[in-house]
Amino acid sequence: MPNRTLTLGEFLIDRPEEFEYDNAELGQLLNAIRLAGKVVSHEIRKAGLVDITGTIGSTNVQGEEQKKLDVFANEAFINTLTNRDIVCGIVSEENDEMISISGSDNRNRNKYVVVMDPLDGSSNIDVNITVGTIFGIYRRVSPVGTPVTEEDFLQPGNLQVAAGFIAYGTSTMMVYTTGNGVNGFTLNPAIGTYYLSHPNIQVPTKGNIYSVNEGGYVHFPQGVKNYIKYVQQEEEDRPYTSRYVGSMVADVWRTILLGGIYFYPPSTGKPDGKLRLLYECNPFAFLLEQAGGVATDGTQRILDIKPTDIHQRMPFFGGSKEMVEKAMTFMK
Ligand code: P6P
C-alpha cells in the first residue's frame, strides 16, 4: 500500500478520539478555521502585487496601525466562524470588545467560543516575512441559551479544548492540538488541500537557539539579563545561536520544530511583556505542552493563569523543557 499522506479532512474523520466533547461540532469548528485560513492565505500570497499591504489609517485596541490584511483576515475568520453556527462568541486582537454571536435562530445555543489573533506579526507583511493566525477554542461556561459573557473568555488556558495556528510563510501550514498531541498540515495551494506533513510533533527536550528581542536588554529584569549572559558564555554546549524574527508564529514554530527557547520578558516599559495571554500565550502554551515542551510566565505555568482581561498581556518563556526549566532558575 503506498504511503498515502492524509488530508486534514480525512485526519479529522479518522481520529474521532480527538474530540472527546462533541465530535461533530468541534470538527466542524476546526474545518471552519481551515477554510478561513485558505481564504487569508490566498489574499496574502498576492499582497505584494495588489495595493493591499498598505494601512487603512485606523488602529486596533493595541494602538497598532491596522494594515488592510489585518482587517481582511479578521473579517474572514469572523464571517466563517459566524456562518458555521457553532460559536457563541469571539475575542479578536483586532476588536476592542468581545463579539457576541446569537446563532442563526437568535437563541444563543452555540457551545464554543474562539479567541484569536487573525494576523499576528502583521508588521512583517510588507517585508515578506512569515505571519500567522493564532487561535484557541473553549466550551462556554455560561448557560446555553443566554448571550455569551466575558467569563466565557476569561478561562485558564488549561481549559482550551483546541488551539493552533496557521503560518503564512514559504508554505501555508495549519498546526493544532485538541489535547491528543500536535499535528501539522501543509497546504497544497494548487488544489486547496492541507496534507499531514508533521505527524505527532515533539519539541526536542534541548536545543541551542535562544530567541528574544535583545533590543530591550537594558530594560529587562536582572534575572533575564543573567540568563542571556549565560547562553552567550563559551561553556559546555554554549554559546547558543540567536534567532529572532519578530513574528511569534515564526519564532515559536521554529522553537517547536528545532528546539530552543523563545521569550518575551517583562521590562521597565512593559511590566507584563507585550504578548497577549488569551490569543498568543495560551494557544502556544497548549501546543508546546502537548508536544513535550514547557511554557511559563517566568514563575508559573501559563496554562494555569486565570485571565482578568480579554486583552491582558503576559510575560512568556516557552520551548524545550530543559532550556525553559534552566532559564527559570535565573528568574528566582
Ligand atoms: P517586538 C507581533 O506584533 C507580536 O505580537 C509577536 O508576533 C512578536 O513575537 C512580537 O510582537 C514582536 O515584538 O517588540 O520584538 O517587535
Automatic annotation (TrEMBL):
Catalytic activity: beta-D-fructose 1,6-bisphosphate + H2O = beta-D-fructose 6-phosphate + phosphate
Domain Fructose-1-6-bisphosphatase class 1 C-terminal: 203-331
Residues where Mg(2+) 2 binds: 117, 120, 280
Residues annotated as binding substrate: 120-123, 213, 244, 274
GO CC annotation, single: cytosol
Cofactor(s) needed by this chain: Mg(2+)
Note describing how the cofactor binds: Binds 2 magnesium ions per subunit.
Binding site for Mg(2+) 1: 93, 117, 119
Annotated metabolic or biological route of this protein: Carbohydrate biosynthesis
GO molecular function: fructose 1,6-bisphosphate 1-phosphatase activity; magnesium ion binding
E.C. number: 3.1.3.11
Keyword terms, alphabetized: Carbohydrate metabolism, Cytoplasm, Hydrolase, Magnesium, Metal-binding
Main location as per UniProt: cytoplasm
The Fructose-1-6-bisphosphatase class I N-terminal domain, residue ranges: 7-199
InterPro entries: FBPase_C_dom, FBPase_class-1, FBPase_N, FBPtase
SUPFAM superfamilies reported for this sequence: Carbohydrate phosphatase (SSF56655)
Taxonomic superkingdom: Bacteria
GO BP term, example: gluconeogenesis
Subcellular location(s) of the protein: Cytoplasm
Gene3D superfamilies according to UniProt: 3.40.190.80, Fructose-1,6-Bisphosphatase, subunit A, domain 1
Family stated for the protein in its record: Belongs to the FBPase class 1 family.
Stored HAMAP family: FBPase_class1
Subunit structure: Homotetramer.
Protein name in the entry: Fructose-1,6-bisphosphatase class 1
Organism, as annotated: Neolewinella aurantiaca
Lineage of the species this protein comes from: Bacteria, Pseudomonadati, Bacteroidota, Saprospiria, Saprospirales
